[in-house]
Design a protein that fits this description.
single chain; alpha/beta; Rossmann fold; Double Stranded RNA Binding Domain; 3 domains; five-stranded parallel sheet; 8 helices; about 40% helix; elongated; binds ligand SHN; binds 1,4-dihydronicotinamide adenine dinucleotide; precorrin-2 dehydrogenase activity; EC 1.3.1.76; NAD(P)-bd_dom_sf; porphyrin biosynthesis; oxidoreductase
């Protein structure tokens, strides 16, 4: 079936819209079973997606993973339509094109590993620290830059950032549970008051005190 997809804006327009997908229990099709597919499936599974892999040749990492449904055969016309999100990661351009066209025709979001122009979704590089997720995209113009920046941010954002987030989230939950509002409080002042340094030094209670002091002085 011919694609009825809008043509993507040319690279360089800065028009990617960032979202966070919740994939738990949702069906994701990965077409292709090589190294690139394996890397994508690893993260999809970690995010709780129900992953199906379709490819004549599937690497052991995927074939041996009980959480992944594998079909050792070529992609069948139209099957992208049965899933919420589809990744085309074969080494055959015409197959990736067909997967893309099927997905677009069915209104299913699609990522094509071999061509940014055939992606309604591109994958950013990412740094995770617990609930914190920092992503880096270049509109597909330089994945190498995304990788380089990701490595720099990994060095910058140590495990203490995850602790910082936990401390903030706990206090925010406490305020809300007590019926209060979290707006209008000086969170930025608290964050600028040395909380991270206290956490780095192992003084989590001192960080919590700094936070409470800043928030209570701004709530009056
Ligand atoms: C459009 C996109 C589609 C998509 O979403 O897959 C895409 C497309 C292509 N990548 C290619 C090459 C490389 N990709 C990487 C790495 C990553 N690529 C990722 C995403 C994306 N890659 C999407 C756009 C992201 C953006 O907006 O920047 C990352 C960020 C995320 C991820 O894949 O999970 C992950 C880093 C993860 C990390 O380490 O943090 C490296 C670097 C390396 O391996 O060190 C290289 C070699 C260097 C270079 O080319 O820059 C090629 C040519 C293939 C060929 O020639 O055969 C194409 C196709 C084309 O451009 O035509
Ligand atoms: N987005 C990214 O980060 C990157 C993307 N790429 C692109 O990703 C693509 C795949 O790369 P690799 O995994 O290294 O290739 P690979 O050669 O290891 O695997 C190709 C896979 O495609 C499958 N395949 C072939 N015909 C098929 C069909 N009709 N139906 C279903 N599956 C089919 C094969 O069985 C195999 O599992 C390449 O086109 C490459 O340009 C490469 C590097 C980085």
């Amino acid at each position: 079936m011919a694609a009825d997809a809008p043509s993507p804006s040319p690279a360089g327009t800065g028009r990617l819209y960032p979202v966070g997908l919740r994939l738990e229990g949702r069906s994701v099709l990965v077409v292709g079973g090589g190294a690139v597919a394996a890397q994508k499936v690893r993260e999809l599974v970690a995010c709780g997606a129900e992953v199906t892999v379709v490819a004549p040749a599937i690497v052991d990492e995927l074939a041996d993973d009980a959480r992944v449904t594998c079909h050792r055969r070529p992609y069948r016309s139209g099957e992208a339509a049965d899933h919420r999100f589809v990744v085309a990661a074969t080494d055959r351009r015409e197959v990736n094109q067909e997967v893309h066209d099927d997905a677009e025709a069915a209104g299913v979001w699609v990522n094509a590993a071999d061509d940014p122009q055939r992606c309604s979704v591109t994958l950013p590089a990412r740094v995770r620290r617990g609930s914190l997720l920092v992503t880096i995209s270049t509109e597909g113009r330089s994945p190498a830059l995304a990788t380089w920046l990701r490595r720099r941010l990994e060095d910058e954002l140590g495990p203490e950032v995850e602790v910082l987030l936990e401390v903030l989230a706990e206090e925010r939950d406490r305020i809300r549970a007590a019926g209060g509002s979290t707006e209008g409080l000086d969170w930025q002042g608290a964050l600028g008051s040395g909380m991270l340094d206290e956490i780095r030094a192992g003084r989590i209670d001192a960080a919590k005190e700094l936070l409470k002091a800043c928030l209570s002085s701004s709530s009056a």
